[in-house]
Design a protein that fits this description.
The complex is a heterodimer. Chain A is α+β, with helices and mostly antiparallel strands. Chain A has one domain: START domain (Alpha-D-Glucose-1,6-Bisphosphate, Chain A, domain 4, 2-Layer Sandwich). Chain A is built from 4 helices and 7 strands, in the order E-H-E-E-H-E-E-E-E-H-H. Chain A has a 7-stranded antiparallel sheet with strand order 1-7-6-5-4-3-2. The two termini of chain A are about 20 Å apart. Chain B has a domain of about 55 residues. Helix content of chain B is about 55%, strand content about 0%. Chain B has 3 helices and no strands. Chain B is flat. The chains are: A alpha+beta, B mainly alpha. The interface between A and B is large, with 46 and 39 residues. Chain A: Pfam families: PRELI (PF04707).
Chain lengths: ~240, ~90
């Protein structure tokens, strides 16, 4: 578990900051926040406390392979409960991520309160986050390995399909050779020109197949290389 | 107001949400902050918006994620985790 703390000040009265807080998004800095929804809101007129539950939708900023690994969700969500206490002039917002909870939990608490040195002109912003990763590195590695093996399996399958077609053509070539042999026997080397013609044809078929085989193998190599590079890139970006 | 408004996670609900938000923001600044808030207003807008949310949260499976989070950190508890009452 890790803790994160920060404190900042706004040169505006608490009332203004608290009102602006509801309209914080969209803004130019927090472009990852894609949606804000109010799920529940209750007001206690005696205590003058307003409690709100919100759902904040964020765009995923994680590598694609990690999405594949964990079931693939294009958006991630954060649930936030805020209480506005008018008598004590505080806004307290507590939030936690809904998605990715099995990997990482981030409990964040934000408090807006009047700055004691200038309670009607300045507002203090206090932020605390408690971050807990639920996965050991070994498990992450295992998952990456599983994913990689899977991907390699897929590429290998493609490679095999390519090679299968090459082999099939080789089998056809054998048939041709058989036929050539039969012809040989039957014709009893009747004319050399016929033989020559068959040889030439066999040669060109062989040459063609060889070229195809080469390009299929090259294709498999390129794909394997691309998969490895992508994986390396992802790991690099993650850090 | 002229300010850009945030959208709903479900595009179908954005219009209803913005109507509700406009009403709420007005109530918050003009009544709540001035200590004149007698009750939570904007209920008509709220009902429509809320119905739309319910449909789309079910569709996208968000309600399942929420129910877990709600038992972990109840609304009534101000969002504090139940297993850690010391959490400020």
């Amino acid at each position: 578990m890790r803790l994160f703390k920060s404190e900042q000040y706004f040169d505006y009265p608490w009332e203004q900051v608290s009102a602006a807080n509801w309209q914080k998004y969209p803004n130019e800095v927090s472009t990852h926040v894609k949606s804000v929804d109010v799920l529940r809101r209750e007001y206690d007129p005696v205590k003058q406390v307003l409690t709100t539950e919100r759902l904040i939708g964020c765009s995923q900023n994680v590598p694609r392979w990690l999405l594949c690994m964990t079931g693939g969700c294009e958006k991630s969500y954060v649930r936030e409960i805020s209480t506005v206490d008018l008598q004590n002039r505080t806004v307290t917002m507590r939030s936690c991520n809904l998605t990715w909870g099995n990997l990482l939990k981030v409990w964040e608490t934000v408090v807006y309160s009047p700055d004691s040195s200038d309670p009607f002109g300045r507002t203090k912003f206090r932020q605390e986050a408690e971050i807990t990763a639920h996965l050991t590195f070994q498990r992450v590695c295992d998952q990456i390995e599983d994913w990689s093996v899977d991907r390699f399996g897929q590429n290998a399958k493609k490679g095999k399909l390519g090679f299968d077609s090459v082999l099939e053509n080789f089998a056809k070539l054998d048939e041709i050779s058989d036929r050539t042999c039969k012809l040989f026997d039957e014709m009893n080397l009747r004319t050399s020109s016929v033989l020559k013609e068959w040889n030439n044809r066999t040669d060109s078929v062989l040459k063609d197949l060889n070229e195809r085989k080469e390009s299929a193998i090259q294709d498999v190599n390129v794909r394997t290389h691309t998969a490895v590079s992508k994986l390396a890139d992802s790991i690099f970006h993650k850090n | 107001m002229g300010n850009l408004m945030s959208t709903s996670f479900a595009p179908e609900c954005t219009e209803l949400k913005q109507k509700y938000d406009t009403c709420f923001n007005e109530w918050y600044s003009e009544k709540f902050l001035k200590g004149k808030g007698l009750h939570n207003e904007c209920t008509d807008f709220w009902e429509d918006y809320r119905k739309c949310l319910d449909i789309h949260m079910k569709k996208q499976g968000i309600d399942n994620l929420l129910s877990e989070a709600r038992s972990e950190a109840p609304f009534e508890n101000g969002g504090k985790a139940v297993d850690d009452e010391d959490r400020k």
